[in-house]
Amino acid sequence: MEIDDDLISKDELLQEFDRVLMYTDGVGWWGEIIDKRVFLVAEDEKCGKCNQHSSSLYLIASSEDKARQLYKEKGYGLCGFCLAKLLYEKKAKINE
């Protein structure tokens, strides 16, 4: 699937998620998601990566407030498929 460049480029999207996962709250590098969770940030919107309509959009953050703030600032979230694919491609580890 391709993303609509008018929304956000794929590189910008990946850079933003690198920024979110690499800084603050004990997060080191990709694959070390510590004190981060997946939060629902929107419903009935288009995914920021695949541009497909989704019933739910998600972001990774240290708190629900931070996830919602990031969504308001950037204006996009990821559908469940794109979020899972991104985590898989980056070989992220989920710690409980």
Describe the structure.
The longest helix has 13 residues, at 10-22. This protein has one domain. It has helices at residues 10-22, 64-74, 80-89; strands spanning 37-46, 53-61. The chain is α+β, with helices and mostly antiparallel strands and 96 residues long. The model is unreliable at 1-6 and 22-31 (pLDDT under 50). A two-stranded antiparallel sheet has the order 1-2. A hairpin with a 6-residue loop joins strand 1 (37-46) and strand 2 (53-61).
Layout of helices and strands, plus pairs?
Layout: H1 10-22, E1 37-46, E2 53-61, H2 64-74, H3 80-89
The coarse overall form would be globular
Largest sheet: 2 strands, antiparallel
Q: What is the N-to-C order of secondary-structure elements (H for helix, E for strand)?
A: HEEHH
Count of discrete structural domains:
1
> Strand order of the main beta sheet, please?
1-2
The chain-level structural class is: alpha+beta
Average pLDDT level: 76
Strand content: 15-25%
What fraction, in percent, of the residue positions are helical?
25-40%
- For the termini, the CA-CA separation is 31 Å
Number of strands: 2
Which consecutive residue ranges, at least 5 long each, have pLDDT under 50?
A: 1-6, 22-31
Number of helices in the DSSP assignment: 3
